[in-house]
Automatic annotation (TrEMBL):
Entry keywords, A to Z: DNA-binding
GO MF term set: DNA binding
Family annotation (SUPFAM superfamilies): Nucleic acid-binding proteins (SSF50249)
Species lineage: Eukaryota, Viridiplantae, Streptophyta, Embryophyta, Tracheophyta
Protein name in UniProt: SOSS complex subunit B homolog
Domain of life: Eukaryota
PANTHER family tied to this protein: OB FOLD NUCLEIC ACID BINDING PROTEIN-RELATED, SOSS COMPLEX SUBUNIT B HOMOLOG
Entry keyword DNA-binding: yes
One term under GO cellular component: SOSS complex
InterPro entries xrefs: NA-bd_OB-fold (IPR012340), SOSS-B (IPR051231)
BP-aspect Gene Ontology terms: double-strand break repair via homologous recombination; mitotic G2/M transition checkpoint; response to ionizing radiation
Record carries keyword DNA-binding: yes
């Protein structure tokens, strides 16, 4: 499957991101009402990003899984940018362990602002952190 690389993902309102990545780390599952969510760190060979798992996805995927995202969305969730499947998107496991990846830059740790020349797009303003502050590097 050819899709967008993680480093090329930008915030948008449309559900149209098709990509593949490896799940590096999962955070704790939290429950609000009937909604179960789990924030995770995923990456490909170009960059990393925070990925929000919803409902049954929280138990369906483990670290080392290679995941294909179809019709995903990169948007704000509680003032934090996360990649997620959304209502129309789909995630599926397509392999395990054999994928090159980098942990920096983390696309969720960049401050994005509306593009002054096109109000439908966002551009990078500055980097908050080179790595995930939620999932700090182990070394």
């Amino acid at each position: 499957m050819t899709g967008v690389k993680v480093k090329d993902i930008v915030p948008a309102a449309q559900n149209n991101i098709n990509t593949e990545f490896i799940l590096l780390e999962k955070g704790k599952t939290t429950t609000e009402g009937q909604n179960k969510t789990c924030l995770s760190l995923v990456a490909d060979e170009t960059a990393a990003v925070h990925f929000q798992l919803w409902g049954e996805e929280c138990q369906a995927f483990e670290a080392g899984d290679i995941i294909r995202l179809s019709k995903g969305i990169f948007s704000y969730n509680r003032n934090s940018l996360v990649l997620r499947a959304g209502k129309r998107g789909k995630v599926e496991k397509v392999g395990e362990f054999t994928m090159a990846f980098v942990e920096t830059p983390n696309m969720s740790e960049i401050r994005w602002i509306p593009d002054p020349t096109n109000s439908n797009k966002y551009i990078q303003q500055d980097i908050l952190s080179t790595h995930s502050r939620i999932f700090p590097p182990k070394y």
